[in-house]
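Fold this: Fas apoptotic inhibitory molecule 1
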Amino acid sequence: MALLASMASGEEITVCDDEVRSRYSHLEKMTDLVAVWEVALSDGVHKIEFEHGTTSGKRVVYVDGKEEIRREWMFKLVGKETFTVGATKTKAAINIDAVSGFAYEYTLEINGKSLKQYIENRLKTTNTWILNLGSTDYRIVLEKDTMDVWCNGEKMETAGEFVEDGTETHFTVADHSCCIKAVSSGKRKEGIIHTLIVDNREIPEAVE
C-alpha cells in the first residue's frame, strides 16, 4: 500500500507502507498515516506525521514519534490542527482540505507560513554547519536576527566582541574553541557574511 502526502510546495510524495513501517516502530499502530514531513528548526530536524481517518474523521499528530494530538471522532473531515514543535515551541499547523470526492490534501504551516515559504525565509535568517568532532556529529545553527547559537538542540552560551573587520561570537563545543565571524560583504544583496571557525579551521556551511 502506498501513502500519498501533498507537501506545502504542491509537490506530492508517495511513501511506501513497507518502508514507513521499517523506519518508524510506532507506526505499527498507525493505519491511517497520510503525510510525513521533516522540518529543520534551530534545535534540530523534527519529523511530523499525520494520521487522518477519512471515515471516522480521526486525527492524530506525532512529533518525533510522540503523540501530540489525538481526536478519535470528528464529524467535519476538513479543518486545521495546531501544535508546537521542538524546544523553541515553534507554532505549526496542518491544514486538511478536500480536493475531490474522498481525496484530501494535507499542507503544513510553520509560524504561519507554508512549508515552502518557511524554508525560503529560514535560508535568509539562519546559517547551519555540520561538523564532526571526536566521532560525534554536531549541528550548529546561528539565528542571524538574534545572534543566538544552537548546537544539537541546545542553546549555547556565547561571548561576542567587536573586532576590526566585524564581530566575533565565541563558544565551546566538546572542549573545542568555536568562533562565528561576521563581516560585511560590501554588497547590499549579500549583506553580512557569517563564517564558522573551529580550532582555527573554517567549516563549510551546510544546506538543509
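Residues 115-125 form the longest helix (11 residues). Residues 15-111 form a domain with the Lipocalin fold (CATH 2.40.128.180).
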